[in-house]
Prior knowledge:
The protein is an all-alpha fold. Helices cover 68% and strands 0% of the residues. The chain has 9 helices and no strands. Helix 1 runs parallel beside helix 8 and helix 2 packs across helix 3. The chain starts with a helix and ends with a helix.
Amino acid sequence: MFCNRLRALRGYHNLTQRQIAQSLSIDRSTYAYYETGKTHPDFETLTRIARMFGVSTDYLLGLDESPARSVIKAIPGMEDSKRDMGPERMELARLTEDEQALVLLFRQLDEDAKERLFNQAVSSARKGKN
């Protein structure tokens, strides 16, 4: 779970492993091992990663039952309080981890790529109903 969330957050922020590793003052290979699950960061590094992405350590570790709250922190302009969340943000809170990763990756695409992907998803969904 940690490695999946780490990859999704890095993708959302459009950063390379090297950029993050430099920011954390660690080797790129060490960071790559975090993303593959071969090793895990120490507490200090975990805390620094959480701060860098604007998420809680609980979210990174899979202990946060509402992952969207932490993901929302990483999205500029979105608040972490459910009472301040509109219907669209509340819906985000119900997304699975894989669905959140897709949303974060989708947001990185240019408008043409978003439209192509959306049309492909609609077409696939329609085929699935038949």
